[in-house]
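Incident log, structure service

09:12 report received: a user says their structure output differs between two submissions of the same chain.
09:20 pulled the input from the user's history:
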Amino acid sequence: MPKFNPDNLNTHELAIEEPEKEAELPFDPERDIDPEHVKIFQKMIEAQISYTNFLTAEKYLGMLKVLGLPHNLSPEDFEKIKVEQKIGLKDDKTLYIETESAADLISLDKILGINNVKDTQADFMQVELDGYMKHGYLRALHIAARMKEAGLNPVISEEEKKKIDENIADMLEGYDTALGMGTLEEVKYLADARIAGFSFNLSADNWKDFRQNIESPEWHPIRALDMYYRLAILVADEVKIPKGGGLELVRHKKEGLTNQTPILPEQKQF
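09:34 re-ran on a clean worker, output below:
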């Protein structure tokens, strides 16, 4: 067997390839949401509870939960929301005339794990969804998305799906600017479409429009929280509806892309 000669060592064979870096997300809640803004959002919830605006408080709570941000509520305040919601469900029969409020309440019950809602009003919601589909897709998709979060299966015809796909494509290409380019209203529409099961690709220009709106000097906490929530839905790899209802955003990390130190080839002692 030939004797090892270190002078013949090919150092190129020992070169270590640097792992491919994961592409930077166009929006990352952990990176892009200022902790001081989170404190403002928490105070917004406390204020809504003190004003007895419990449905609004639930909306903000649901957004923080889906974003993975702390709500900082006391157990007493959370219990107050649960009790007031139950009273509303039991006594306020007019609630279901306000279709969007009913849809919000039912979906938030599932997202927050309150579980007061026993009757998800599936038939009523589908009738309302069908009615909205005849007059435009903005409110219809809102109902469809809330139905999905409530664990229901909204029925949308193939013809309606095709029209919505075309509408989304026109919007993202800038042909349909009725909602404004990159505005909260446009982002709401797209986020609801994604929850409802529609697929589409967002370009760098689309994300540039979105970011211009969240970085606007006219920053307002209510609109900012809503915008962050919708962008998180759009940037997620998967929008997951757990069994029985709710909403979870999943991001799949690329396998093998870790911060661990790469293992060096075993060195021989000479």
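09:41 both user submissions now match this output. Likely a transient worker issue. Closing.
09:42 reviewer note: Strands lie at 238-240, 248-250. The first helix runs from residue 29 to 32.
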